[in-house]
Design a protein that fits this description.
The complex is a heterodimer of chains A (about 170) and B (about 290).
Chain A lengths: L2 E8 L2 E8 L4 H8 L18 E4 L2 E4 L12 E3 L13 H8 L9 H14 L5 H7 L11 H14 L12
Parallel strand pairs in A: 1-5
Antiparallel strand pairs in A: 1-2, 3-4, 3-5
Helix pairs in contact in A: 2-5
Chain B lengths: L6 E3 L4 H11 L3 E4 L5 H6 L7 E4 L9 E3 L3 E5 L4 H6 L1 H6 L1 H7 L5 H4 L4 H7 L5 H8 L3 E6 L2 E6 L4 E3 L2 E2 L6 E8 L6 E10 L6 E11 L5 E9 L6 E2 L1 H7 L6 H14 L10 H25 L3
Parallel strand pairs in B: 1-3, 2-3
Antiparallel strand pairs in B: 4-5, 5-10, 6-7, 6-10, 8-9, 11-12, 12-13, 13-14
Helix pairs in contact in B: 5-8, 9-10, 10-11
Classes of the chains: A alpha+beta (about 170), B alpha+beta (about 290).
Amino acid sequence: MSQHEITLTVNGTARRATVPARQTLVDFLRDTLRLTGTHVGCEHGVCGACSVLLDGKPVRSCLIFAVQAEGAAVVTVEGLAPDPEGLSVLQDSFWEMHGLQCGYCTPGMLIAAHALLQQTLEPSEAEIREAIGGNLCRCTGYKPIVEAIALAARRLRGANVPEGRDGG
Amino acid sequence: MKAADFDYECPASIDAVCGRLAEAAGEAKIIAGGQTLVPLMAMRLARPALLLDINRIAALHGIADAGDHVVVRAATRQAAALAHETVRARVPLLAKALGFVGHVQTRNRGTIGGSLAHADPAAEIVLAALALDAEIEARSVSGTRTMALAGFVTGPMETVLAPAECMTAIRFPVWRDAGALGTGFQEVSIRQSDFALAAAAAQVVLDQAGVCRRAAVAVGGADATPTRMADAEARLIGTRLDDDDIAAAASLARAALAPLADLHASPLYRRRVAGALVARALAEAKGEAVRGKG
């Protein structure tokens, strides 16, 4: 079994580890680093639950081997909140709009939505749907997720709209 | 659903990759974006003994305008190509096709060359490359060769690329004909950005009088390999791409298909949808050319 030493940054912390070549990045994050916020669903790039930011861009961590992340900066769902007890504006908007039920897809949805909101704070509904097009949810029917992302965008761009008049 | 064990190397140059491919005698696979290969490995449909990671080879990344064609180096990310001004301005059909490829997460990782090397029947990049008569450049220890897209794909997930060859670049021809260029790309899939049940690509040039002087039409996702629609193209030349002309071309395209059956769609469905998509792609292309947007 080929073993490789890697160094990378995960949620701002430098990490060094020895990984087998066949270990996916998501298994490394969950099993080795015990960062179990990132979920692993299908393990072959269909469901999007394992989405993380790799050098700032959303990718599926089940389709990258950990050894390939040598030198990279990885951000997982644990890295989105300002502190361990708090929620980001986006996470709070998911809470507010009931953008989750079972929660399995939520880490991937948050990463995909976070990446979108890094690009634009004025996404159209079509852009929101495109951004989460690679993430499966079997509970919500997507509508409250789309609404949560739209709410987060409104909040983040500081629109001066009273609560309750902005669609929730 | 985890890949079988393998060895992993990250060669520093294309020549080093070719050297290792030659030594490995078919047991090695190149990994670039991994968006097709890693699922195949997870499902144990592929069990390479050695993975050669080409992501860090700078000579395999980048896009260059070479006048009558645009060179896309093989490991260029799909997201990078989609955002690239040269691609959008010079080979707009490729840019359109890229918008349908996978999802944000897979485009950030997946590469132009990787999609062509795997040749999934539903792959939009292969379809656009076929419509544009792109050329593939590949290197091995024996030297470099160039392959036309016509004949490059031999079946589902099969190409003429040899196990010891490393694809290095793709050359997408730029149409510089006098007149107005228009492109169309249409696809039907179960979900947004899912695999195409059928897809159609069209590119046309209209002269000042609005007469079609050049046309390329191709269909993917329906047959085992993407297919150029030569009869449909011939039917369009010299016409004004009126509704009747487009309908006749779509009908010829339908007749030229031998669609696949799978869990998602019957051959009959694929044939009918493909015909409709050819018509829509041509209408889209005509609309662009007429508005002078191409």
